[in-house]
Specification:
single chain, alpha/beta, 8-stranded mixed sheet
Length: 464
């Protein structure tokens, strides 16, 4: 489903499989000024190089350099990609070559554009959709995203002549990672198994209310030495169409499937959830046996959007007050204050009984989350645990980070359609701070799972 770039490159006679792997387009030949009868190039042909070359994982950093420029030459670098539905995402930044006509994004600060300053990966994390209110997600992890990088003459990205071009494929399956669809009993999931000798520590990965079965986080995490099961829970195949009533027995069945898999080692599994998925992981750790560690990314400490059931017990949804619904100057919804406090009145019944949990927790919190009050929820969970003589959970707060803390280099989504609200909402966050939070959070959750689940710590690349 990924956009085919060979067709794009063919008119320029570029070859992705050339022994020098990056497609290059020489700069235009110009007349030398001052001599109307002389025809000679005024500068060397510019070339852009990327390391690693050809192909790498989405969560790996890339080194971008340009050579063959004139000393001090002004250029604009522009990155673009299309998702599987054809939506275009772009970012650009302005630079000046050094005295040797070279440009290295690890040493040269951006002078303007989508970002400023020394940001070697800014051309990825600053990508913005051509059409507003779109979030970049990977729907098919078996195909890569093709990122096109262009070097343009001057500081006007629309008027500058093309000096060089490169295309890098950034994929989501490390070599040897196996993808196995799971259709067992009621469970609808996809299991990713890493290469190497089994058994592997197991993790159940649960996303928010975006529907379907997102696999990109699970597939990337499997490349770090974990057996990761991306679990769907509503509006997918024959699963319930809404979250109005969710039954923990379904999630228990999924956990048991993973624990009983011959390539997964026990005695328990890890849980990883974001948004509604974080809330569900907190509930699973509180009600179910066999949870060894849980990472909650911007999750709620109360049931939201529907009733949670387990063996005769129910958690009703926390109440909502429309009077606290706000609208930004851009006409987007800000729902930060809409939910009632689960500490007051009848809404206390929606509070997840975290004191029953027997596993360690890691809460990863975006302090500018506008979906709900993630920092407040993490702190209240910590208070409840400690009040019942349970271990204090680890809480890492990220100033300037919004709601969707994704694997590294996914661009921050400013606003998009909220499935439950039915209209576009703002998610919060400042792009640079959010990008840095994603890199650190990705490292933190791997370290946490390796500590509590076991596994080869050496599989974690140093990305900080």
């Amino acid at each position: 489903m990924v956009v085919s770039f060979p067709a794009l490159l063919r008119p320029f006679r570029l070859c992705r499989w050339d022994p020098t792997p990056w497609a290059r387009l020489a700069g235009p030949t110009k007349l030398r000024t001052g001599d109307p009868n002389s025809w000679a190039p005024t500068r060397m042909a510019a070339t852009v190089t990327l390391e690693p070359a050809v192909r790498c994982r989405w969560d790996e950093p890339v080194r971008i350099a340009v050579r063959g420029l004139a000393p001090g030459q002004q250029v604009t670098l522009r990155a673009s990609l299309r998702d599987e539905k054809g939506a275009l995402f772009r970012a650009h930044a302005r630079y000046c070559a050094d005295a040797h006509g070279q440009l290295d994004l690890e040493r040269a600060p951006a002078l303007g554009g989508s970002f400023t300053g020394l940001e070697p990966m800014g051309l990825l994390w600053a990508l913005e959709p051509e059409k507003p209110l779109l979030r970049l997600v990977k729907r098919d992890v078996q195909t890569p995203f093709a990122v096109e990088l262009e070097v343009l003459d001057g500081h006007d990205p629309e008027a500058g002549g093309l000096l060089s071009r490169a295309v890098q494929e950034r994929d989501f399956l490390a070599p040897g990672v196996r993808r196995e669809p799971v259709r067992s009993g009621r469970v609808r999931a996809t299991l990713f198994l890493p290469p190497g000798p089994a058994p592997f520590p197991g993790i159940v990965d649960i996303s928010g209310t975006g529907r379907g079965l997102p696999e990109y986080r699970a597939s990337l995490l499997a490349g770090k030495g974990f057996a990761v099961m991306a679990l769907a829970y509503y509006n997918y195949e024959d699963l319930p169409k809404s979250i109005e009533n969710l039954h923990l027995e379904y999630f228990e069945e999924a956990m048991n499937y993973l624990l009983n898999h011959p390539q997964v080692k026990g005695p328990g599994v890890g849980l990883l959830g974001i948004s509604k998925g974080g809330e569900l992981c907190l509930s699973m750790a509180s009600f179910l046996k066999g949870v060894t560690a849980a990472v909650i990314i911007n999750g709620s400490v109360a049931s939201v959007g529907g009733t949670l059931h387990y063996k005769g017990e129910t958690l009703p949804p926390v109440g909502v007050s429309r009077s606290r619904f706000k609208v930004t100057k851009d006409g987007l919804a800000d729902i930060l204050d809409v939910l009632n406090s689960p500490l007051e009145g009848p809404d206390q019944k929606s509070f997840i009984p975290v004191e029953r949990a027997e596993c360690p927790f890691l809460f990863l919190v975006g302090q500018d989350d506008h979906n709900w009050k993630s920092e407040f929820y993490a702190n209240e969970a910590s208070k409840r645990l400690q009040a019942h003589s349970k271990a204090k959970p680890q809480i890492i707060c990220y100033p300037g980070a919004g709601h969707y803390i994704e694997p590294p280099y996914f661009p921050m989504c400013r606003a998009s359609l909220h499935t439950l609200v039915g209209s576009p909402v703002i998610w919060g966050g400042e792009p640079r701070a959010h990008a840095r939070a994603q890199v650190d959070a990705w490292q933190q959750l791997q370290t946490f799972f390796h500590k509590h689940l076991g596994g080869e710590k050496g599989t974690i690349p140093g990305m900080l």
